[in-house]
Amino acid sequence: MAITKIHAIRSTVQKSVDYICNPHKTDNRILIDHHGCGIETAALDFYMDNTKALQKENAIPAFHLIQSFAPGEVTFEEAHQIGQEFASELLGSSRAFVLATHIDKEHVHNHIIFCSTDYLKNQRYYSNRASYRNLRNISDRLCKEHGLSVIKPGVEKGKKYNEWEAEKKNNSFKLNLKKDIFDCIRFAEDYEDFLKRMRNKNYEIKGFELGEDAPKYISFKPQGYGNFIRGSHRTLGKGYTKEEIIERIEKHLQSRADWIKKQKALPLNEKNLIDTSSDKFTANPGLSNWANLTNLKIAASTYASVGSSIELEEKINLLKEQCASNRSEIVSIDKEKRILSEQLRYMQIYLDTKAYKNAYEHSRNPEEYLMQFESKLTLFDGAAAILASHGLVPSDECYSRLRDELSDLEERRSEIKNENESIQKELKELERHQDTLNRFFNKDNPKKETNEKNKDAQKQRGD
Q: In which domain, by residue range, is 416 found?
């Protein structure tokens, strides 16, 4: 799993870059990657990109993104690879960034400092809820693809420390109350049934009456707790007033009805097996016979739709190989895109500063001109040297050709990504069929074995 955080850098870009590139934290700078800027000149490079986009003086020049992994879950090299894929997908091929993987603590973590402006499109990065949701989704998806766990997003904020500490010990009255309310809402047929179920859990309830003259809030007193806990937004959060509880009950009833209707409409080979291990099946022979017969029909329909189990396993392995091949090709395309975008960057710098170089060469007072426009001339010389090392002759025609090549690569990447999504969808369905047959014939679940192997490997890495 990976925790992601992001914050703005307003005035200490180079200081922040120097910190994340500390040799003691990055295996003597082996686990460092950068694109569109130099490690020592990142602040200047970011300044140029932001100035070119005509940003306001108080605009944010850069952002600092942190991606932290669970202890022992990932190797140093794999964490760095995930960081590279993360930066490439989130920032594209034309936004300067510095990536460093820190290994000095128990949890491996990536630092990505990136410019707020795209140097080709001159588009700014805006840090808000939508952009954070996007980067979180990308990080979670990459973790899944690499076989790591994913954190389920929390919905509660602002807990007091003693409540948080109590929740860690599974001893919080409020947490237990909310869990019990949730359980009772799930199975309640109406509001009265909900109250009955809560009382059966040894809760004393007051303020539960409805109507104009009724108390505003419902309150619950758990057994062994001195005070009533009010079902208000301030005490428990949203969803625990009388009106909200009734609304949640109605939504659960509607969801349950929709699910039953959907299950009835599903073909047998798309249904999941019924788990007959619970007490309600052992205590009711008729229900148990019905479930076993239904499972038999589901297994038979699944078997008929996928052919033999050997053919099914071969197809799953083939799709996994295609997914891996597509991912490798995407990584390769991303590397080509980064090279092309850097060439475009320096080509643009060359073309933008060429006039300063010509003026300097024809200046009557070269020393005075150099003092006034030294930064522009330095940029020109640097861009010319880099382009020459790539064997490129700077011109408008060459610039257009590079842009066309970059556009073709982006189109190819999009096609492969869409193909991979289709393959993964088919793979998920086939693995569900495989799981159905394995469970019916009491075979070991391959996914379970894989997870156990991963846990053993992680323990060994931790040791």
A: 309-462
Rounded to whole angstroms, the Cα distance separating 86 from 112 reads: 10
Distance CA(7)–CA(60), nearest Å, equals 10
Domain final residue pick, 279, 306, 333? 306
Give the closest residue to 97 by CA, choosing from 11, 19, 25, 39.
Answer: 39
The answer on 129 and 87 residing in a single domain is: yes
* Three-state SS at 97: strand
Least-confidence region, from 177-191, 278-292, 337-351, 415-429: 278-292
* Gap between the terminal Cα atoms of the chain: 19
Residue 165 lies in a domain: no
**C-alpha span between 42 and 285 (Å, rounded):** 72
Q: What are phi and psi of 219, to 5 degrees?
A: -130, 145
164, part of any domain: no
3-class secondary structure, 115: strand
Whether residue 82 lies inside any domain: the answer is yes
Q: What is the per-residue pLDDT across 76-93, written as a single tens digit (0 to 9) for each?
A: 999 999 999 999 899 988
Total-model pTM: 0.56
How would you classify the pairing of strands 32-35 and 62-69?
A: unpaired
